[in-house]
Design goal:
single chain, alpha/beta, Aspartate Aminotransferase, domain 1, Aspartate Aminotransferase, domain 2, 4-stranded antiparallel β-sheet, 13 strands, about 40% helix, binds pyridoxal-5'-phosphate
Length: about 400
């Protein structure tokens, strides 16, 4: 049992991390310390307000370290989906009829529905189809879809259904060759791999802190030289070059204090106490080292499970520890309920990945999804597979 995560102490095997992760004590302590000091709005020269201002500014700074970008490229928000809809509103004032948008077929609807909204102004949506034997996206297929009219490519860092990781940097290079922008969904990948938006060279990226052992917040990277060009829906006095144009209303400062606690847990407990991005890089090296054998073990047990069909990549190459499968014996929701009764939490359904599920012929019933985090153990996986083996 990981002593840093009190919610795991009950012994329940939580394998629904793709839906949202558990939080370390440092996250809870951050929220409590903040609210016990004061609950004030930002911007005023008294102590309580200064605390909120410093929590917000520190969040922008440390989230920039997490993305691998500059603090003036980080938008703070309530959720990934709220942020992509804000971006889509700005695009709707910038794009015109006949412009083309490419969406990968692996996307969660958070990185698809907001761009489909642009059909209302006459944009054409093209879907970059995956090869469904393994769920892979092929760059050669993307090349055929690109044209001088392409304005946007939406691509995930890892599919929240199948767990595979497409070649985002390769796709970005191709999209940039025709002048298109790239929006990268890092929600599913970021609990397993540290983002590096400068390396992938994407123009926009987002993740949700609650999937990364933090609070219910969303963050978006916006390439600095694009910010001013984006006509956001904003209060009239907010300048065009200000990130505040994507941050309407009052933010969740206690949530930010919790997220800062999570980042300090990552650096202290997994990152060797190193400061800044360096501590996060080290922490994620640890996370990858912990997860790799778990991923391989789970795949092994899944392949040996009678009546099971695994969807997507059957090897541990280029994938995270998310397993999407069905049992011949029973439908996904029945299996999820059965596992819950046996002390194991997994997901069932389409988890808003409606395109992958449709392509696999599984929509709307979907599939079972088990997903590990760095605090998962072999014992959790044994409990899952032992229970599944007994299911009739
Ligand atoms: C891959 C992916 N993208 C986006 C989202 C949406 O994130 P949020 O709940 O912060 O809007 C999710 C949530 O499950 C997800 O798994």
């Amino acid at each position: 049992m990981n002593p840093h995560f009190p919610a795991l102490a009950s012994g329940f095997s939580f394998l629904d991390n793709a839906a949202g992760a558990q939080v370390p004590r440092a996250c809870i302590a951050g929220i409590t310390a903040f609210l016990e000091s004061a609950s004030c709005n930002v911007g005023m020269p008294y102590a309580g307000s200064q605390l909120s201002t410093s929590v917000r500014d520190q969040t922008r700074l440390e989230t920039a370290e997490f993305f691998g970008c500059s603090p003036d490229e980080v938008v703070l928000g309530p959720s990934a989906t709220a942020l992509t809809f804000r971006l889509s509103t700005a695009f709707s004032r910038l794009f015109k009829a006949g412009d083309e948008i490419i969406i990968s077929e692996l996307e969660h609807e958070c990185n698809a529905s907001p761009w489909r909204e642009l059909e209302r102004i006459g944009c054409e949506i093209k879907i970059w189809r995956a090869h469904w034997s393994e769920g892979h996206l092929d760059l050669a297929d993307l090349e055929k879809l690109l044209s001088p009219k392409t304005r946007l490519l939406a691509i995930t860092g890892a599919a929240n259904s199948l767990g595979n990781r497409p070649d985002v940097a390769g796709a970005t290079k191709l999209a940039h060759s025709v002048g298109a922008w790239v929006v990268n969904d890092l929600v599913h990948d970021s609990p397993h791999h540290l983002p590096d938006v400068k390396k992938s060279d994407v123009d926009f990226a987002f993740f949700s802190a609650y999937k990364v052992f933090g609070t219910h917040l969303g963050f978006m990277y916006v390439r600095q030289n694009l910010l001013e060009k984006l006509p956001a829906q904003k209060l009239h006095f907010i300048p065009d070059d200000s990130l505040l144009k994507f941050e309407p209303g009052t933010n969740n400062y206690e949530g930010m204090a919790g997220w800062l606690g999570t980042l300090s847990y990552l650096r202290q407990e997994l990152g060797g106490g190193l400061a800044g991005r360096e501590g996060l890089v080290k922490a994620y090296q640890q996370i990858e080292a912990i997860e790799k054998p778990l991923l391989e073990y789970a795949l092994e047990r899944l392949k040996a499970l009678s009546g099971a069909t695994l969807y997507g990549e059957p090897s541990s190459q280029n994938r995270v520890g998310t397993f999407c499968f069905n049992l011949a014996q029973a439908g996904p929701l029945e299996v999820v309920k059965y596992l819950g009764e046996h002390g194991v939490g997994v997901a069932g359904g389409h988890y808003y990945a409606t395109m992958p599920m449709t392509a696999l012929g599984l929509y709307p019933t979907g599939a079972i999804r088990a997903s590990i985090g760095h605090y998962s153990t072999k014992a959790d996986l044994d409990k899952l597979f032992d229970a599944l083996e007994k299911k009739d």
